[in-house]
Specification:
The chain is of the alpha/beta class and 513 residues long. The chain has 4 domains: 275 residues, TIM Barrel (Alpha-Beta Barrel), CATH 3.20.20.70; 31 residues, no CATH class; 49 residues; 117 residues, Alpha-isopropylmalate synthase LeuA, regulatory domain (Double Stranded RNA Binding Domain), CATH 3.30.160.270. The strands form 4 sheets. Strands 2-3-4-5-6-7-8-9 form an 8-stranded parallel beta barrel, surrounded by 7 helices. Helix 1 runs parallel beside helix 2, helix 1 packs antiparallel against helix 11 and helix 5 runs parallel beside helix 6. It is globular, with a radius of gyration of 25 Å. The structure holds acetyl coenzyme *A (ACO) and 3-methyl-2-oxobutanoic acid. 3-methyl-2-oxobutanoic acid (KIV) binds next to strand 6 and strand 7. Pathway: Amino-acid biosynthesis; L-leucine biosynthesis; L-leucine from 3-methyl-2-oxobutanoate: step 1/4. InterPro entries: 2-IPM_HCS-like, 2-isopropylmalate_synth_dimer, AIPM/Hcit_synth_CS, Aldolase_TIM, LeuA/HCS_post-cat, LeuA_allosteric_dom_sf, LeuA_bact_synth, PYR_CT. One of its GO terms (molecular function) is 2-isopropylmalate synthase activity.
């Protein structure tokens, strides 16, 4: 059985999904869960991109003990230095550096000749080799590159010190047969390729990212890069849970496996979905709500007689629980704490106590509290170290079938001042958002609004995700409440607060001495 290393880039390429921006606490929470899932490598960010990115890579490197933490860098000394400063405190620091190798990227983007690109790549790997024990080098847009040019540059970067060679399908263009052939060609023609681990990194523009990753494995690749739930730039990356479960279920065919604890998959997927606001489609393989639901009579009959008639994956395998314990207003601190641990959260006693108070408040309003409610509560209350520039103090919305909806809102700003405004709209949510825009006194464009219920039942919590644009910065926000309008207001304010936090963290680009 060949061992396949899993390189998780949820925190880097995953965060490149339009509208997703995770704060430091959220990144640390995801990193801890990735460690529980047992991924081999965590790409925690691009340290040269901003002070915030630098800090989060650094903190992830400091807390993760069972995976190698890597940062991304262009072929530039300042980017490489930023990665080193961020990851050097980690147990197994790594660099991931890249340069584009396709004719279109070299000519129009980099404005370099192929020979100059080789020179840039080799000199940056040589420079990095003085700092890093492990260097991964990627040929950006490898799949649209000339294969003989790839042979030439790969041979030279391995000689310069790279020990992992990644050939990404940056634009999601290739198909499985071609991707396999490309890796076969490289192994046949690069004389020193035995000194390097081969890695695949696929995008899903044509819906082939997972198939391409599996084809790469069939052709000698031993490292797969991807993200949880397949999030990422444009149509996303290869979904790691799909790759890992495909290898497990079809070991007979692939003769390869990962180290992942597959029963941590569902929890990881839920956490990433909640924190990024990227909702999982119900029919998504492995982690979708319907992935284990048998709907039609003939299927149900078959499953009742023998599960394997229609079930190739057991829900338990990936951590999907059929029976979740229900908490209510009579539950005590022990049951609550046990529940948090089962959900994978290790919190300080003070945080447990603080959340317990909120849990009791919710339990007074809601008959049964499910795991989903607790996760929503946690995500809402726990994972924010952002500064609150605006806090919702009071909210009133008037709505009647023959009346213009009107909202009145009171906010408190960072200086402790009270702001009160009222405005109308075509509907209640529009009235609410027109009023909030007045309170914040800045032009805010609402780019996306999504609402879903947390769990089932009439008293289910409402969870709202919004995407707003303010001063050229796009940010997502979320809010949870029993009332949909309160959840809508909270999500909007959360997104605006995040814009101000991003503006602050971007003001100063890091400079490493
Ligand atoms: C395929 C991928 O996913 S690559 C990773 C994508 N991730 C990101 O871009 C992270 C977020 N990015 C950022 O914050 C910014 O783009 C920064 C800080 C990295 C750079 O910002 P800026 O200095 O303002 O440059 P900008 O982004 O406008 O342009 C990129 C520059 O890097 C150059 N560049 C691109 N890739 C590379 C590379 N691998 N090596 C060296 N230079 C590169 C471009 O040619 C361009 O150079 P130019 O200014 O001389 O034309
Ligand atoms: C930096 C590289 C690996 C990348 O993200 C891509 O090419 O898609």
């Amino acid at each position: 059985m060949r061992k396949i290393n899993i390189f998780d880039t949820t925190l880097r390429d995953g965060e490149q999904s339009a509208g997703v921006n995770l704060n430091l606490h959220e990144k640390l929470e995801i990193a801890r869960q990735l460690e529980r899932l047992n991924v081999d490598i965590i790409e925690a960010g691009f340290p040269a991109a901003s002070k915030g990115d630098f800090e989060s890579v650094k903190q992830v490197a400091n807390i993760i003990k069972n995976a190698s933490v890597v940062g991304l860098a262009r072929s530039k000394q300042s980017d490489i230095d930023a990665v080193w400063e961020a990851v050097k405190g980690g147990v197994s620091p790594r660099l991931h550096t890249f340069i584009a190798t396709s004719p279109v990227h070299m000519k129009y983007k980099l404005k370099q000749t192929p020979e100059e690109v080789i020179e840039t790549a080799v000199s940056s790997v040589k420079y990095a080799a003085k700092l890093f024990p492990t260097i991964q080098w990627s040929a950006e847009d490898a799949c649209r590159s000339d294969y003989d040019f790839l042979v030439k540059i790969i041979t030279k970067v391995i000689d310069a010190g790279a020990s992992v060679i990644n050939l990404p399908d940056t634009v999601g263009y290739i198909n499985p047969k071609e991707y396999g052939q490309m890796f076969a060609y490289i192994q046949e023609h690069v004389p020193n390729i035995h000194k390097a681990v081969l890695s695949a990194h696929c995008h899903d523009d044509l819906g082939m990212a997972v198939s391409n990753s599996l084809a790469a494995i069939e052709n000698g690749v031993t490292q797969i890069e991807g993200t949880i739930n397949g999030i990422g730039e444009r149509a996303g990356n290869a979904s790691l849970e799909e790759v890992a479960v495909a290898l497990h279920i079809r070991q007979d065919y692939y003769q390869a496996n990962t180290r992942l604890k597959l029963d941590e998959i569902k929890r990881t997927s839920d956490l990433v979905s909640k924190l990024t606001g990227m909702v999982i489609p119900p029919n998504k393989a492995i982690v979708g709500k319907n992935a284990f639901a048998h709907e039609s009579g003939i299927h149900q009959d078959g499953v009742l007689k023998e599960k394997t008639t229609y079930e190739i994956i057991s829900p338990d395998l990936v951590g999907v629980k059929s029976n979740s314990m229900v908490l209510g207003k009579h539950s005590g601190r022990h049951a609550f704490r046990t529940h948090l641990v089962e959900l994978g959260y290790q919190l300080e006693e003070d945080d447990v106590n603080r959340l317990f108070v909120l849990f009791k408040e919710l339990a007074d309003k809601k008959k049964e509290i499910t795991e989903e409610d607790i996760s929503a509560l946690l995500v809402e209350q726990q994972l924010t170290n952002d500064e609150d520039y605006f806090v919702l103090t009071a909210l009133q919305v008037q709505y009647g079938t023959n009346q213009v909806p009107t909202a009145t809102i009171t906010l408190t700003n960072a200086d402790g001042e009270t702001i009160q405004e009222a405005a109308t709209g075509a509907g209640s949510v529009e009235a609410l958002y027109n009023t909030l825009e007045r309170c914040i006194a800045a032009p805010i464009v609402l780019e996306d609004y999504r609402i879903q219920s947390v769990g089932a039942g009439r008293d289910a919590l409402a969870q709202v995700y919004v995407k707003v644009e303010l001063d050229g910065i796009v940010s997502s926000g979320r809010g949870t409440a029993q009332d949909v309008l309160e959840a809508s207001a909270k999500a909007y304010i959360n997104a605006v607060n995040r814009v101000y936090n991003i503006k602050n963290s971007n003001q100063e680009k890091i400079s490493i001495s």
